[in-house]
From TrEMBL:
Matches recorded under PANTHER family: FAD-BINDING MONOOXYGENASE AUSB-RELATED, L-ORNITHINE N(5)-MONOOXYGENASE-RELATED
Alphabetized InterPro entries for the sequence: FAD-binding_Monooxygenases (IPR050775), FAD/NAD-bd_sf (IPR036188), Flavin_mOase-like (IPR020946)
Needed co-factor(s): FAD
Source organism (scientific name): Streptomyces olivaceus
Domain of life assignment: Bacteria
Name the record gives this protein: NAD(P)/FAD-dependent oxidoreductase
Keyword Iron on entry: no
Annotated coiled-coil segments of the chain: none
Lineage per the UniProt record: Bacteria, Bacillati, Actinomycetota, Actinomycetes, Kitasatosporales
Family: Belongs to the FAD-binding monooxygenase family.
Keywords, in A-Z order: FAD, Flavoprotein, NADP, Oxidoreductase
Statement: the UniProt record of this protein carries the keyword Oxidoreductase: yes
Length: 602
């Protein structure tokens, strides 16, 4: 389809029909219930394959200044920013065997960050590190996480391979009592939670999944003992194996080229194709990215965040497919709320979206030589329905003789598994190994999901306090009744595709709160009036995206097709504006949350 045809009313109507059809083929009555967690009989899927053998340690029973729950970039940055504020004892508690979070767990072959490394890796100005590739491999990112943790001396007090099991506010000592699955019970004057967003791996609840006698694992726990090789490839153990991979999201797109190269035969079980745009990874020099003065990294990531938050920005430093498609992802959606002529804007959006998706589909046709395979790899939905992906290797992999694409859309996923393999459309595909690239449960932290019970003043559990009328926070960080508890990266703040940038701004904020409370001998706790005022800000311009997601193919963006209700879940004007708001508030209004004494605030 040419660009001009795409813009005709008839072509747009055809697209709308096609998109509706593709959605209807995929919506399942069981929605998110189709997945099973890696618990109980599936618990072995979540075991840590990377942790070093640890001899037992004495349970911690002491008191620290700050307990940080989670040692991914959120927790590391909180620790680093707290250190910069001169806070002495900061204890990070982390489930994995080291720092790194997502980059600790995900070490699958081909892993890269698909956001430019010079804006994604935090604290480049502070550490003097300049990434060598535009899109860094996972191991480089994991090492950078360790670099920051070492520089700010976070190893000294950290507890690894340890999961926090409860947080209880103790009025008498004015501290949180932190318990863990390793028998620790220590006190912390402040708690910062940095428990991440997509952390709990999920498996498809395929009938017969337990009958399969071959080898299986999830991409976030890659079994190199079985496959051989490293994240850079060389999976020699697969050379004579029939390997299947389920899932073609951002992870599947990165892992498929590696499996295609090294497996005897690869079967890619696809349900919904991703949009696979140009990657253009390349080596970069310090000069290319303007790393010739202190502050270069901050300027670059501010520039990126401005563009993807829909701000008017003159220059585009990163200049990649995130920034060129920003209008379809974030820029235009918030602006629907600001414009009077909504119909005209929606029409313009649809035309721009169709042009982009036609370009994406045309690329499939250009790259994939077999027309039938190319047809099945074309995505039929709007660009922002699913997380976009980028690769110059993925589509090409389907031109290999040892790669077979198996479309599972008609059966809404793999039908069933047998002792020998996978069944789709009545055909059994015998396999030696099946890799699940099936993603993660959505839930911003263990707190909201109830996995991590938090009891504040009077023993009230945070989850119960929010059960009836939803979350109540000031800026997403602090809540009345839960003194000295700061949540990072959570609900009612402002997310962005460059999540480490968001986490760093949150870490700066958290550290400033703690430092101010220390300086004044105060407790951090917003009043209910402060929470109400914040809820009013969120509600005033709350996003109207229900219509959009209701027309999308299912996925974790839209509750597996059930829609994404409108509501005051995030600051409506984007992350860039949110960070400016936070800075102003720290300069002018921070006293609002600093109460002297530990009594309850009204
Ligand atoms: P996703 O949830 O995005 O993808 C899961 C995949 O599994 C989908 O293709 C899904 O199909 C498929 N699937 C699930 N169940 C079945 C089934 N029964 N039969 C067949 N297929 C099935 O997980 P990812 O791990 O790919 O990505 C999760 C997130 O992690 C990303 O969105 C991104 O935020 C982050 N990420 C970031 C990267 C980066 O470079 N920054 C790299 C990798 C991940 P369907 O779409 O039809 O549901």
């Amino acid at each position: 389809m040419t660009q001009s045809e795409a813009l005709s009313a008839e072509a747009l109507a055809d697209l709308r029909r096609r998109y509706r059809l593709e959605r209807e083929r995929r919506v399942r009555p069981d929605g998110a219930q189709q997945y099973v967690a890696a618990e109980a009989r599936f618990g072995y899927y979540a075991e840590d394959p990377y942790a070093a053998e640890e001899s037992g340690r004495e349970p911690a029973r002491d008191r620290v200044d700050v307990a940080v729950v989670g040692g991914g970039f959120g927790g590391i940055l909180a620790g680093a920013r707290l250190r910069r504020q001169g806070i002495g004892r900061v204890r990070v508690v982390e489930k994995g065997g080291d720092f790194g979070g997502t980059w600790y767990w995900n070490r699958y072959p081909g892993i890269h960050c698909d956001v430019e490394s010079h804006v994604y890796l935090p604290m480049l100005d502070e550490t003097g590190y300049v990434p060598e590739w535009k899109y860094a491999p996972g191991e480089e990112i994991r090492r950078h996480a360790v670099r920051i943790a070492e520089k700010f001396d976070l190893y000294a007090d950290a507890l690894f391979s340890t999961t926090v099991t409860s947080l209880n506010w103790d009025e008498t000592s004015g501290a949180w009592v932190v318990t863990t699955d390793r028998g620790d019970e220590f006190r912390a004057t402040y708690v910062v939670t940095a428990t991440g967003t997509l952390t709990e791996l999920k498996l498809p609840g395929i009938p017969g999944i337990e009958d399969f006698e071959g080898h299986t694992f999830h991409t976030s726990r890659w079994d190199y003992a079985y496959t051989g090789g490293t994240p850079q490839g060389g999976l020699a153990g697969l050379s004579d194996k029939r390997v299947g991979v389920v899932g073609t999201g951002a992870t599947g797109v990165q892992v498929v080229p590696e499996l295609a190269r090294d497996a005897g035969h690869l079967y890619v079980f696809q349900r919904t194709p991703s949009t696979v745009d140009v990657r253009g990874n390349r080596r970069t020099t310090a000069r290319d990215v303007g790393a010739d003065h202190h502050g270069w990294a901050r300027e670059r990531r501010d520039n990126f965040l401005g563009i993807v938050s829909g701000e008017h920005v003159e220059d585009d430093f990163v200049a990649d497919r995130w920034t060129s498609s920003a209008g379809l992802l974030e820029k235009l959606l918030p602006s629907f709320r600001r414009q009077d002529d909504r119909a005209a804007l929606e029409a313009a959006y649809e035309v721009a979206d169709a042009a982009k998706m036609n370009e994406v589909r045309a690329r499939v046709e250009q790259v994939v030589t077999d027309p039938g395979t190319a047809e099945r790899l074309k995505p039929w939905y709007r660009y922002a329905c699913k997380r976009p992906t980028f690769s110059d290797l993925y589509l090409q992999a389907f031109n290999r003789d040892n790669v077979t694409l198996v479309d599972t859309a008609d059966t809404q996923g793999i039908e069933r598994m047998t002792a020998r393999g996978v069944v789709v459309g009545g055909t059994e595909y015998p396999l030696d190994c099946l890799v699940f690239a099936t993603g993660f449960s959505v839930g911003n932290s263990g707190i909201l999901s109830g996995r991590l019970p938090v009891h504040g003043r009077g023993g009230v559990q945070l989850r119960d306090a929010w059960r009836e009328r939803g979350p109540r926070t000031l800026h997403g960080f602090t809540s009345n009744g839960f003194p000295n508890l700061i949540q990072l990266g959570g609900t009612q703040s402002a997310p962005s595709v460059n999540f480490t940038h968001v986490l760093d701004e949150h870490a700066v904020h958290a550290a400033a709160l703690v430092a101010a409370a220390e300086a004044r001998g105060a407790v951090i706790e917003p009043s209910r009036a402060s929470e109400d005022a914040w809820l009013a800000v969120l509600a005033e311009d709350a996003p109207d995206h229900e219509w959009f997601h209701a027309e999308c193919t299912p996925g974790y963006y839209n509750g597996e097709g059930r829609g994404r209700p409108n509501g005051a879940y995030a600051y409506p004007h984007g992350a860039f504006a949110f960070h400016q708001l936070l800075q102003r508030w720290r300069e002018e209004s921070m006293d609002e949350v600093l109460a002297t004494g530990t009594s309850a605030r009204g």
